[in-house]
Each structure stands twice: as C-alpha cells, then as structure tokens.
Amino acid sequence: MTAARRPLPALALGAVFALALTGCSSGGGDGKDEGKGDGRPELKVSGAYVPQPPTEEMAGGFLTVRNSGDSADKLTSVSSDVAGKVELHKTVEQQMQRVKSLSVPAHGKLELGRGGNHLMLMELEHKPTKGQTVTFVLHFQRSGAVTVKAPVEATNYTHQK
Predict the structure, then answer these.
(1) Beta partners for 146?
(2) Which CATH number fits domain 43-153: 3.40.50.300, 2.60.40.1890, 3.30.230.10, 3.30.565.10?
(3) Which pLDDT tens digits describe the chain residue by residue (161 residues)?
(4) pTM
C-alpha cells in the first residue's frame, strides 16, 4: 500500500511545476502582435508648430506624437481650421511622398519635422502668419481624434527638442 502512494506525490509535484512554468510564459508575446495586445496606445502630442509659409498655396505642419502605451497606433488623417486638405507626407531620398498613414510604435514616437515626415496643409483659406494659432484634429486608428493647437512661427523656425 505504501508503494501505491508514492507516485501520487510525484504526480502532484509534477503538476505544480507544470503550472508554475505555464504561469511564467509570455502568453504569445513574441512582439509580432504589436498593436494587438491587451494594452492600449497612450498618446501625447508635443512640439506642434506651423512655420509661416512663404506663399499662400500651402504650409507645413510639424509635431511629435509619443506613445507610452503597450500597443502601436496609426495616424490616418488630419484636418485643420486653415486648410481645405491636409496630407500626410514622408520624405524618401529628399523627395516628398504622400502616404495613407504614419505609424506610432508602442513605447515609441512619431516625429513630424523638417526634412522628414510632415503634414502638408493645402487649399489654405488664408496664409497663416506668425503669432496666429492653427488647430489640427489628428485622427488615429485606435485612439480616435486628438485636437492640437499649433502656434505659427517664423518661416525659419525649428523646434528645439
């Protein structure tokens, strides 16, 4: 009867080890599901500005979106109070290319700045001048709409990080 009881504690101990190992697993967190995890994007916009444009046809918009959340997001469109149309642009080999969206990685940032990714304000209702404020509504795939007020700065202004 004693021999029959020995395997039971060994099985129970094995079950405890198996449960402990399962509890330590990452649950499939191999990094391939970025943006699909349980965490949400946590976005904060800073450094927004519009340089006073030299012409009345178009202007650029610059800002930084920081994501402290566990999931990625995408900037999918932008609207503005001074432009009939706002396009998302990236710069590749010193050439602007219109894109449908720009990624904001989890625990990362999307920088829109001179010489790189930026907003292109087109069909201006009026030429923004230094001292005014431009309102942007940033539309994100997961986080929805975020309203940002951007001061109009001198034509040659560059935001200090």
Answers:
(1) 138
(2) 2.60.40.1890
(3) 444 444 444 433 333 333 333 333 333 333 334 444 458 999 999 999 999 999 999 999 999 999 999 999 999 999 999 999 999 999 888 889 999 999 999 999 999 999 899 999 999 999 999 999 999 999 999 999 999 999 999 999 887 76
(4) 0.74
Alpha-carbon distance of 98 to 87, in angstroms, equals 7
What does the chain look like in DSSP terms, one character per residue? -HHHHSHHHHHHHHHHHHHHHHHHS-TT-SSTTTT-SSS---EEEEEEEEEPPSSSSEEEEEEEEEE-SSS-EEEEEEEESSEEEEEEEEEETTEEEEES-EEE-TTEEEEE-TTSSEEEEEEESS---TT-EEEEEEEETTTEEEEEEEEEE-TT-----
Hunting for tokens 């904001």 — which residue is that? 104
Q: Where are the domains of the chain?
A: 43-153
